[in-house]
């Protein structure tokens, strides 16, 4: 019906897809990263209060029921001014829900990548939309009596959201030929900023609206935006395959002479992306087992573990640092949410670094496979900056000063935007487009398995370390230092390949 709009050579279609994709990803992709906002609501609604000692349960329920007939909703929600009612057991259960949700998110990215490669984005988005809506409607009916269903609700939300967003990522990687790195990084910036959705839930909740009403309104907005994106802008699978084939044929023709010289040079080293797609050395297995990919996945996994652990423990950390002042906790959670929205603002910086030659109008020195090498080389400064900022983030987060946490909020936002944006761009630049979804998904799957370690780390902290965070933070900091080997390795490989290229040009 809308096939006449889907023209890869049409600037109008590209702009519509870009803005539609950003809005779609912003609304329904990584909202669980705003966990601190929804935890505030869950604690105010006394979810899992039954896990706490009887004295805490009685105090919380008495405060909830005391003189409610003479109080407005806003007055009731200010009843815990000097601290949330709760206990370590309640925090542990909420942390477990977050861990399960984030693990499911990354595992789903793996399977959704394979499914999108095979069946196309339209079909996968249709399935994902149904699952996502079911999960969101389930959230609307949550209360403290059925709080254990939050495991199922957030599992459905994560599965549906990753089906939706993976279809956008794959389509973006194919549609935007000239500014692929820029478009992909901005889409990932929207993914980072989607955490602001649950902050808006919290702000609206504090204004006196119920969680049920907020969720219903959210579902209506997502229903409209997601369906417009799927029906009007997402191309069918056969069209995407045709565009991919056209690009491969164009690159093959432009790079034929360069490939011949590379193959006949006795000093040749294996290029980052081999020219012959059907050769055994270019198999999916060879890419997965390459040091290039293994080190990248290790780097991604360690940094994601730090980010997940930070978000999952943030409400508890802020409560301790504020001396159990609920108003301060609420204010700092709001600041954190606003900082997370900055991911969409940081992503153009990442886009400029990754596609600076094209954005400045400079022509590539080479064509075909070597131009892919240049895109990979542009990832080196991004990896370096991300690593340095993550080290700063670890240090700021470990300091027991409440005001310094604002700095950690800002650095967290930049690290997260650069980490996921560079992951998507690096996979697209260093490996064949036909394996993009699978390689992207495998990386997220391994990172999810590593990120799930945040829950045992939280248990170690709360049970064995007296709920003092420093010990676990030092463990994660050591892993971050070890992950520094990845940007060094990418720099070494790209420098070596550049020397080879210069040798070929002068010979």
From TrEMBL:
UniProt keyword annotations, A-Z: Membrane, Transmembrane, Transmembrane helix
Q: Which Pfam families match?
A: MFS_1 (PF07690)
Q: Write one Gene Ontology MF term.
A: transmembrane transporter activity
**TM region(s), chain numbering:** 12-42, 94-116, 123-143, 149-169, 181-201, 213-234, 288-311, 335-354, 379-400, 406-431, 438-458, 470-492
State the protein's name: Solute carrier family 43 member 3
Species of the source: Clytia hemisphaerica
Phylogenetic lineage: Eukaryota, Metazoa, Cnidaria, Hydrozoa, Hydroidolina
């Amino acid at each position: 019906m809308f096939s006449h709009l889907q023209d890869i050579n049409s600037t109008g279609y590209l702009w519509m897809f870009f803005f539609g994709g950003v809005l779609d990803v912003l609304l329904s992709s990584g909202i669980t990263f705003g966990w601190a906002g929804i935890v505030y609501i869950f604690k105010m609604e006394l979810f899992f209060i039954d896990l706490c000692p009887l004295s805490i349960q009685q105090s919380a329920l008495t405060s909830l029921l005391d003189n409610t007939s003479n109080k407005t909703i806003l007055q009731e929600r200010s009843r815990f001014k000097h601290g949330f009612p709760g206990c370590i057991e309640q925090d542990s259960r909420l942390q477990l829900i977050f861990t399960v949700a984030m693990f499911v998110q990354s595992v789903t990215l793996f399977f959704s990548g394979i499914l999108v490669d095979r069946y196309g984005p339209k079909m996968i988005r249709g399935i994902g939309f149904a699952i996502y809506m079911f999960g969101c409607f389930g959230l609307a009916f949550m209360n403290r009596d059925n709080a254990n269903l939050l495991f199922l609700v957030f599992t459905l939300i994560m599965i549906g959201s990753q089906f939706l967003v993976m279809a956008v990522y794959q389509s973006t990687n194919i549609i935007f030929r000239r500014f692929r790195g820029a478009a992909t990084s901005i889409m990932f910036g929207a993914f980072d900023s989607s955490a602001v959705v649950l902050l808006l839930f919290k702000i609206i909740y504090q204004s006196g609206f119920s969680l049920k009403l907020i969720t219903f309104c959210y579902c209506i907005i997502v229903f409209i935006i997601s369906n417009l994106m799927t029906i009007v802008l997402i191309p069918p699978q056969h069209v995407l395959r045709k565009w991919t084939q056209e690009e491969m044929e164009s690159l093959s023709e432009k790079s034929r002479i360069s490939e011949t010289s590379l193959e006949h040079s006795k000093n040749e080293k294996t290029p980052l992306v081999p020219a012959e797609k059907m050769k055994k050395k270019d198999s999916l297995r060879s890419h997965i087992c390459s040091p290039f990919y293994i080190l990248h996945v290790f780097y991604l996994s360690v940094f994601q573990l730090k980010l997940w652990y930070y978000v999952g423990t943030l409400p508890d950390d802020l409560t301790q640092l504020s001396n159990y002042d609920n108003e301060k906790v609420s204010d700092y959670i709001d600041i954190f949410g606003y900082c997370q929205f900055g991911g969409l603002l940081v992503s153009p910086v990442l886009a400029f670094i990754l596609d600076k030659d094209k954005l400045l109008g400079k022509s590539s020195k080479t064509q075909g496979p070597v131009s892919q090498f240049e895109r990979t080389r542009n990832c080196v400064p991004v990896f370096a900056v991300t690593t340095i900022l993550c080290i700063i983030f670890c240090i700021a987060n470990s300091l027991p000063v409440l005001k310094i946490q604002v700095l950690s909020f800002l650095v967290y936002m930049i690290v997260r935007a650069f980490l996921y944006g560079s992951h998507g761009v690096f996979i697209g630049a260093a490996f064949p487009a036909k394996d993009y979804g699978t390689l992207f998904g495998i990386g997220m799957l391994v990172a999810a398995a590593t990120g799930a370690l945040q829950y045992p780390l939280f248990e170690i902290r709360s049970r064995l370390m007296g709920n003092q965070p420093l010990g676990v933070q030092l463990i994660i900091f050591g892993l971050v230092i070890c992950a520094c080997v990845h940007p060094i390795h990418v720099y070494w490989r790209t420098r070596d390949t550049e020397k080879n290229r210069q040798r070929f040009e002068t010979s």
